[in-house]
UniProtKB/TrEMBL annotation:
Record InterPro entries: RNase_H-like (IPR053151), RNase_H-like_dom_plant (IPR044730), RNaseH-like_sf (IPR012337), RNaseH_domain (IPR002156), RNaseH_sf (IPR036397), RVT-Znf (IPR026960)
Organism (species): Prunus dulcis
SUPFAM superfamilies recorded: Ribonuclease H-like
CDD domains, A to Z: RNase_H_like
The protein's name: Reverse transcriptase zinc-binding domain-containing protein
Positions of the RNase H type-1 domain: 269-333
Gene Ontology molecular function, alphabetical: nucleic acid binding; RNA-DNA hybrid ribonuclease activity
Length: 370
């Protein structure tokens, strides 16, 4: 029964799906609104339908914006399905810390750090005691929280007031709470990142105390940890490409002599000289030829390029939003209108000031990269 009902929906000129599509007009918004929620109709109507073209159906890769397959998106899609619930990898990935500290933090969350208790379990040692205090077994809880040597290190910091159970929590809760805590700042560094670097130093100094007989813990471990983080942060910022910006004053520019600026039916009104301005650089680039056949909007882009090949002189240029304020206002106003085509016989009351400003050549400031 279900398969028969589905066939009736899509089959024949009188079928439901055929009723949703109308030649030259795309989606039949009224029909869609009778069957679907407005939010769903808005998403459907944003997809251009070529009901009269002869282009064959094409497979596109959905996870990318241009429909072209990429290994990156395939991996992300696979990782999304294989992600373990509660996995902290996203939390660790977003920390602004050195890569080696990220790797260590990941091992720490997975409890893969070889403490003496862990080494005994793996039959790599017979002594589970702490190599520094020699009083307790060296578990993760002891190594990073309760060992007297570590207590002194943590107390050298001004711990955030929100971490009231810092020394009494179990290891899992302690680790998660500190990695998620971003309220406390030390010299513009988040506590979560300082905490991760501090844990890495605890492990590093633990190893040095075992393999370097004359090693002594620093007198001010907190200062060393913060300075290390600051140096890495400074070096990392230097690697980022610095972009200088300058302020420009922009205004709407009238078209060259003999040209018209865009009218939606410009080519059908007999206009032969037309300049199209848009503040959406990506759209301008695509219409000017920077797109592939697998792009989800390829049908609409093909229609645009076919229009440009007509017997007229038409140029499509990118402009800043400050020089396109009237069109920008109309686009934003469309968010509060019903779906479908709207025609204004006269300028909207709130649009007139923008038109007057453009007519008078009003300059608007904008910082642009140089």
């Amino acid at each position: 029964m279900l398969s028969k009902a589905s066939w009736r929906i899509v089959a024949g000129d009188s079928g439901l799906w055929a009723a949703m599509l109308r030649k030259k007009t795309g989606w039949n918004i009224k029909k869609l609104l009778q069957a679907l929620l407005p939010e769903v109709v808005k998403q459907i109507s944003s997809i251009y339908v070529d009901v009269e073209g002869n282009r064959p159906d094409t497979c596109i890769w959905g996870p990318t914006s241009n429909g072209v397959f990429s290994v990156k998106t395939a991996y992300e899609l696979s990782a999304r399905f294989n992600e373990v619930p509660g996995s902290p990898w996203k939390l660790i990935w977003n920390l602004k810390i050195p890569p080696r500290v990220k790797m260590f933090t990941w091992l720490l969350t997975q409890k893969k750090i070889l403490t003496n208790v862990q080494r005994v379990r793996r039959h790599l040692s017979r002594d589970p005691s702490c190599p520094r205090c020699h009083y307790h077994e060296e578990s993760l809880q002891h190594l990073f929280i309760s060992c007297p040597r570590v207590l002194a290190l943590w107390r050298s910091f001004y711990l955030p007031k929100g971490l009231i159970n810092f020394f009494s929590s179990d290891f899992d809760s302690w680790l998660k709470e500190n990695l998620c805590y971003n309220a406390g700042h030390i010299r513009n560094l988040k506590w979560s990142s300082i905490f991760a670097v501090a844990c890495w130093f605890i492990w590093k100094w633990r190893y040095r105390s075992i393999f370097e007989p004359h090693f002594q813990m620093p007198c001010r471990p907190n200062q060393i940890i913060v300075e290390y983080h600051l140096e890495w942060d400074k070096a990392n910022n230097l690697l980022k490409k610095a972009t200088s910006r300058t302020q420009m004053f922009l205004a709407w520019q009238p078209p060259p002599c003999g040209f018209f600026k865009l009218n939606i039916d410009g080519s059908r009104l007999g206009l032969r000289q037309l300049t199209v301005n848009s503040d959406y650089a990506l759209v301008v680039d695509m219409i000017n030829g920077d797109w592939v056949d697998s792009h989800p909007m390829s049908v609409l882009l093909t229609k645009c390029t076919e229009l440009l090949k007509n017997q007229w002189n038409c140029s499509i240029l990118h402009v800043y939003r400050e020089t396109n304020s009237a069109a920008d206002f109309l686009a934003k106003m469309g968010h509060h209108k019903d779906l479908g085509y709207h025609e204004l016989s006269s300028p909207h009351d709130q649009l007139q000031p923008f038109l007057d400003d453009d007519k008078n050549g009003l300059l608007r400031p904008r910082f642009v990269p140089v």
